Amino acid sequence: MEIHFKSINIFNPATPEGAIVYALLFLICALLLNRMLSLGVQRALARGSRLHIDRTRVKFISQLAQILVYIIAFFMYARFIPGLSNLGNAGLASVGVLSVVAGMAAQNTLGNLISGISLLLYRPFNVGDRLQIMAPTGLETGEIESLSLGYTIIKTDDNRRVVVPNSLMASQVTINLTRDDSRAICSIAVVITLDSDLDKARALLLEIAQGNPKAQKIDGCPVTRLDGSGIELTLSVWCTDSVIAGSLKCDLLEAIKRRFTAAGIKFPDYHRVITLK
Per-residue pLDDT tens for 222-233? Predict the structure, then answer.
């Protein structure tokens, strides 16, 4: 009995075995290159404070570069394998139809990608900026934690993550609380009775604001409403940022209640009338 062994040439790209070997080689090279790219980006971001590196732009370009590495590796592999080049020539006739189908299937993903590139180019905000956006849960305020190819992740003050598609981030109105000037204004409306001493109430409000260390500048305390229910005074105080503004408002409200009660300045009594029929 004669036994014939079929010779296997794993280094010949025209054979199935060779195509598999070269596919693994190209994949390993792409993985190693992306790993080196990721380590380089991490080192660059670690020195970002000294080199004034734009973290948002570096992360975004890094993700695009990693995708580009896989695309280039695939096309180089396809050119290297004769069978794939023939398959590519045979499928040129259906490229138009496939591109239309793929475009319709991935229109949301492509929209997010294009919007992400637009956000990178125009830079209305960066990683670390504080934003106010309108979400299904209402008005959300938080810090941009990451800006990826498809989504922007915002970390709120209560440690929640709001994930917003880039297409929505590029189309909706956002309020950037940290660009150029991070200061925020704290406004408090105080209503007193019509027979209360207006000048005394205003003087107390200004004194309370001036005595708070979180207040930077007092913008004024004018009368903003006058009707049968009372007199409304609005105290406006500047502070360092929006986080301090929330804390400052709580401090001022508590101090106003105590000082007005001690000074005999009254707040209007609101009564609810329920009529049964």
Answer: 999 998 889 999
